[in-house]
Amino acid sequence: MLIFVTRRAATMVLTMIAVSMLLFAALEVNVENVAVKVLGPYSTDEQRNIWLENNGYFEPIYVRYFTWLSNFVVGDFGESIRFRTDVSEVLWPRLGNTAILAACVFAVVIPVSLLLGVLSGMREGSKLDRTISVTSIVTTSVPEFASAPLLSAIFVFYLGLLPGTSGMAAGFDPVQLILPALVLIIYDFGYVARMTRASMAEVMTTNYIRTAVLKGLPYRRVILRHALRNALIAPFTVIMLQINWLLSGVIVVEFFFAYKGFGALLLEASLNQDIYLIEACAMVSVFVAVMTQALADIGYTYLNPRIRFS
To answer: What's the CATH fold of domain 87-271?
Structure first.
């Protein structure tokens, strides 16, 4: 296990370096473009040259890259063009807000979808299975940009039970998290439930499960000790992938409800061509993606001891 973790860590580092090279090549190689984005389109050539020289942009490209990369490693992301402050002062609070929203979504999605998926897979073809399957398909077929206005119309304008925005202007308010979390829960739970159902149904038809049942083992023990552990491998992969989606794929929800999260920040950075903020968001997103996949690989060995990585 130690060897696997070491190799996985090395792979993570190499992946981050490769992505950083691509990001640097796309956004930092053209120094004139960087100066225009920072100083604005109405700045003069003299102003741009002075700024580029003061910020080391006339150094050799490999020197600039290693300087840029070392600054990232220590958390120095530069100054945001949009917010006129250090990127880290804007990035980390927004990332924390998205983490809070994701935690609320996961707290509901994971237990509900796993439970419904297991029950559906155990009784393949039954009325319960068909009901859960149809519900999962319907919810996942409705995108967030459709369900968000629909839920707002019902709970905000018609019933008047919930606030229509989640800006948290007066401080943290858990009530303002309900609508954005509900939109994500409705859209997301069907994926995990369907994957769990398919995996559980496949496991229930295997020979070792049939043998355990024929030997007279209690059905509950067969499910909990033998079937469930193997059936959770595929859903576990999907759940880990949802972390990446909840990090940067919730732009529509965060923008619609004015929630100050990471997705909305990425949209603001793109619209305002905030080059340093875009770079920071991209590197954080890649780091989270690589980390979650590493954790998924390690988790496989605990769900199924027969899986070993060499």
So the answer is: MetI-like fold (1.10.3720)
